[in-house]
Amino acid sequence: MNVQRKEVHGWRKWFAFLRNRCPRCGQGRIFAGQFQMNDPCPVCGLIFQREEGYFLGSMYFGYMFGCLFIGGGFFLLSWLLPTWNDYAIVGVIVGVYLLLVPFVFRRSRSSWIYFDRWGCLGDVSDGAYEKAAKLNAQHD
Question: Could you tell me if residue 78 is inside a domain?
């Protein structure tokens, strides 16, 4: 892991966000597998989980994505399929949403990381673990 401090900006940052890449370097993958995360970034060393309970805020993004999908899907299918029962429409939408849960999980976590980095661009809000890791890296 080479420690570089080159930040991505502008359209490259949006492209990195859409590809679930590191918000600092834009190259390292946030996820190592379907649900397993890389921590830290394999390219620049950014620690994604700053402290225990850090990803609690990603639940707000997951809730928002779920409400938009289920609510928007209900109104869209009600308009497209006016003869269907409302319960059948809700059942179809919830069934499709359950298939999308891994995508929502990944998207909500990466959205939270980007939102947090947007709110605090520097390393001022680093957690104790991240600060200790930086000190250990300086001594090595």
Answer: yes
| Geometric angle at alpha carbon 63, from 61 and 67, rounded to 5° | 120
Residue 114 lies in a domain: yes
Token pair, residue 75, equals 């109104």
Backbone angles phi, psi at 113, to 5 degrees: -60, -45
Q: What is the pTM of this model?
A: 0.76
Q: Could you report the per-residue pLDDT of 76-119, keeping only the tens digit for each?
A: 999 999 999 999 999 999 999 999 999 999 999 999 998 988 87
Tell me which residue range forms the domain holding 102.
11-139
The CA distance from 92 to 78, in Å, is 12
Number of domains in the chain: 1
Domain membership of residue 2 (yes or no) is no
Token pair for 78:
């009600």
